[in-house]
Automatic annotation (TrEMBL):
Predominant cellular place of this UniProt entry's protein: nucleus
Organism: Zea mays
One Pfam family recorded for the sequence: DOG1
Keywords assigned: DNA-binding, Nucleus, Transcription, Transcription regulation
Name recorded for this polypeptide: Transcription factor TGA6
Length: 243
């Protein structure tokens, strides 16, 4: 498969995806407005928060266990690939192993998506990663643009056209990352303002419970952001393995 054709095709996909992310910012604005209306109306759903907290804990634990199993299989597959390279296996055999690794990455994306529905904070915080890995964590994963930057130095020799294709992919990935980061910042600011407004209006515990209810409602509407996260990770894996 010609790398230039693949890179150009993926660049077009990524550019379209960046446009979708820009459109999603309108949805985040709507979320902020709904949070503000909820704060003004004084919605009390503390019992729902307690139930949601219980579900989140169970979801996080289940994900940690599934991730441990996934990582064990991932390490086994990587060892198999390295052994094949060392033994000078045929391209067909190596491609078969790579295809299995790609399929296995799809599995972790699915697991992350399911876990995010139960406890999005657990996925975004990366508590299931090692401390060293968490230093480089971004929205529950790694920045595709940074990995592409590292990857480009390991693919030599490449033609000028191929280098340009990788560079364009990196720039488009950066745009997608910026859009997602801005969306997350907007959501965090909205939640902070909601909390500040609830506490300033009255110091009673009822208003704190009110805020928690509003936050639970906001988290329930994070499906769009969670979906973006899954799309970025899926596209990231494709950009990596086609090269």
């Amino acid at each position: 498969m010609d790398i230039t054709v693949v890179l150009i095709g993926n660049l077009a996909i990524l550019q379209a995806y960046v446009q979708q992310l820009e459109n999603s910012r309108l949805k985040l604005t709507q979320l902020e407005q709904e949070l503000q209306r909820a704060r003004q109306q004084g919605i009390f759903i503390s019992s729902s928060v307690d139930q949601s907290h219980s579900m989140s804990g169970n979801g996080a634990l289940a994900f940690d266990m599934e991730y441990a199993r996934w990582l064990e299989e991932h390490n086994r597959q990587i060892s198999e690939l390295r052994a094949g390279v060392s033994a000078h296996a045929s391209d067909t055999d190596l491609r078969s192993v790579v295809d299995k690794i790609m399929s296995h990455y799809d599995e972790i994306f699915r697991l992350k998506g399911n876990a995010a529905k139960a406890d999005v904070f657990h996925v975004l915080s990366g508590m299931w990663k090692t401390p060293a890995e968490r230093c480089f964590l971004w929205l529950g994963g790694f920045r595709p643009s940074e990995v592409l930057k590292l990857l480009s130095t390991q693919l030599e020799p490449l033609t000028e056209q191929q280098l340009s294709g990788i560079s364009n992919l990196q720039q488009s990935s950066q745009q997608a990352e910026d859009a997602l980061s801005q969306g997350m910042e907007a959501l965090q600011q909205s939640l902070a303002e909601t909390l500040a407004g609830s506490l300033s209006s009255s110091g009673s515990t009822g208003n704190v419970a009110n805020y928690m209810g509003q936050m639970a409602m906001a988290m329930g509407k994070l499906g769009t952001l969670e979906n973006f996260l899954r799309q970025v990770l899926t596209l990231f894996s494709k950009c990596i393995f086609v090269t």
